[in-house]
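From the methods appendix. Each design record in this collection lists the tokenized structure first, followed by the designed amino acid sequence. Records were kept in a plain field format so they could be parsed without special tools. The example shown here is representative of the layout used throughout.

RECORD:
FOLD TOKENS (91 positions):
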């Protein structure tokens, strides 16, 4: 994994590899350019999870929002998840 995803795999040897190299490769495997960007992304996700758990108002609570869907199969789940606004089911 580390050699496959690291930006400079030729510089890695069993004697020189460090934790930072593994972190860098892991971030790149997940589509981010650096460990610090991966950490920031995870922290942002955790903040959103806390907001949902604490039932904070959704980001679109103060604006009119139209959710257009092909069908209405998940309309109730979206509302339960905190989606606000009008739902338009196109069937």
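DESIGN:
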């Amino acid at each position: 994994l580390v050699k496959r995803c690291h930006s400079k795999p030729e510089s890695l040897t069993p004697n020189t590899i460090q934790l930072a190299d593994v972190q860098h490769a892991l971030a790149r495997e997940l589509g981010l350019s650096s460990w610090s960007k991966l950490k920031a992304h995870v922290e942002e996700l955790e903040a959103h999870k806390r907001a949902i758990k604490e039932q904070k108002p959704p980001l679109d609570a103060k604006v009119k929002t139209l959710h257009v869907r092909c069908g209405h199969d998940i309309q109730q789940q979206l509302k339960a998840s905190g989606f606000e606004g009008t739902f338009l089911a196109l069937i």
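APPENDIX NOTE: Helices lie at 2-5, 19-29, 35-53, 75-80.
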